[in-house]
Amino acid sequence: MLAVIALAGLLVAGCQKDTAGGASGAAAYPSKTLQLMVPAAPGGGWDLTARTMQKAMTDGKLLDKPVEVYNVTGAAGTIGLAQLVSKNRGDAHHLMVMGLVMVGGVVANKSPVKLDQVTPIATLTAEQEVVVVPANSKYTTLKQLMDDAKARPASINWGGGSAGGTDQILVGLLAKAAGADPKAMKYVAYSGGGEAKAALLAGDLTAAVSGQSEFKDLVSAGKVRALAVSGASGVDVGGGKPAPTIKEQGFDVELMNWRGVVAPPGISDGDKAAVTAFVDKLHGSAAWTEASKAQGWEDFYKSGDEASAFFVAENERITAVLTDIGLG
């Protein structure tokens, strides 16, 4: 509890701290090229989120400056996090896409750089996870897969995003719900969704877990089969009809993967207000609404102090979950 209180205090302090320079107000922002860091390899959910933001900003004519997206890979985003904190301090024109995966990654990787060192701006979306297998897999239901995961855990090669992220958390929760040992699950962590997809198609994985939008192309092409989604209701992940939920198949598990955006530490109050106002404008734009709907993302918008409080609560929740399934 003391750690959570300390995290809350640091987040609030980071929001209140005032330094000189940078954007002078919401109307002037951005006043130069806006950089969006994706702390993961191309092809994954963070990458898709950043490039969707870039397109919506441009198509919606929300700014008259360039928007550049670049990738920094490694360790559930914590390498990018360290770069944002050390290299980009005080630069309000340098933002980073992140989410639940990074919260877990900081814990699982024992990262020396923490999320309480950045400036929270907003959460954007929440997305269901999907469990998929190759189209030629013998598994046609989640129950069949989990029966084998319980009886013969070494026979199932799971794959997904970085260690401690949403994908591995879901595998651990599924194992617990099926009566299997979460620690016995063979999980291969990849730095981006593109790598996990390639491994699944190459036959290196029995099953893969990721955000539902990341596998839509492969499901639609008939190359993989969606066994289940992790939300409260079924959603079409590319097969033309809603995939069944995990709960509908007898496992008491529900998990949503949220994504958001943060700024470096050391930006002024005026800069923080300007960045937040700009992201508020992005969220309220028709271009963003249409793009989010096309991706199947659920609106999960929180900004300013509400976002800061949510980050604190998620740190506490995910730390507890990772400890419970042996990853903390």
UniProtKB/TrEMBL annotation:
Protein family (similarity comment): Belongs to the UPF0065 (bug) family.
PANTHER family on file: TRICARBOXYLATE-BINDING PROTEIN (PTHR42928), UPF0065 PROTEIN YFLP (PTHR42928:SF3)
Protein name: Putative tricarboxylic transport membrane protein
InterPro entries: BUG, Bug_dom1
Species whose genome carries this gene: Paractinoplanes brasiliensis
SUPFAM superfamilies assigned: Periplasmic binding protein-like II
Gene3D superfamilies: Bordetella uptake gene, domain 1, Periplasmic binding protein-like II
